[in-house]
Amino acid sequence: MISLEKYRPQVLGLLRIIAAYMFLLHGTDKVFGVPAVFGAQPLFSLFGIGGVIEIIGGVLMILGLFTRPVAFILSGQMAVAYFYVHASLSNVLLPILNQGELAALYSLVFLYFVVAGSGAFALDNKISKK
């Protein structure tokens, strides 16, 4: 049987980069209105501040810089988003009905990075070697 274990760091790094890129797009939409899905939100609103956190956190996660603490903050942000925004709309146990699937999934994915680290292709790896 072929062991795929040796590819774990590369796949983890790829997951980090792709998830962070998609997360970053949520922030750029909230702050700059690009891509125009929801449109720019007032900067000092709950969504505007969330967008700034998503941009900064998304960039740091793409780079793999301070991965664990950044992922902890982003996981918490998405947990708050789920319970404060989405779960208040409908049944907390049915994210498909309250449109909270992405918030719940992002929260869990970022929590995984807190535990697993950054994987391959990360600046954290370069810093820790020095």
Automatic annotation (TrEMBL):
Membrane topology (UniProt): Multi-pass membrane protein
Alphabetical UniProt keywords: Cell membrane, Membrane, Transmembrane, Transmembrane helix
Pfam families according to UniProt: DoxX
Principal location listed in the UniProt entry: membrane
Subcellular location: Cell membrane
Listed InterPro entries: DoxX, DoxX-like_oxidoreductase
Parts of the chain that traverse the membrane: 7-24, 44-67, 79-97, 103-123
Similarity comment: family membership: Belongs to the DoxX family.
PANTHER family: BLL4328 PROTEIN, OXIDOREDUCTASE CATD-RELATED
Name of protein: DoxX
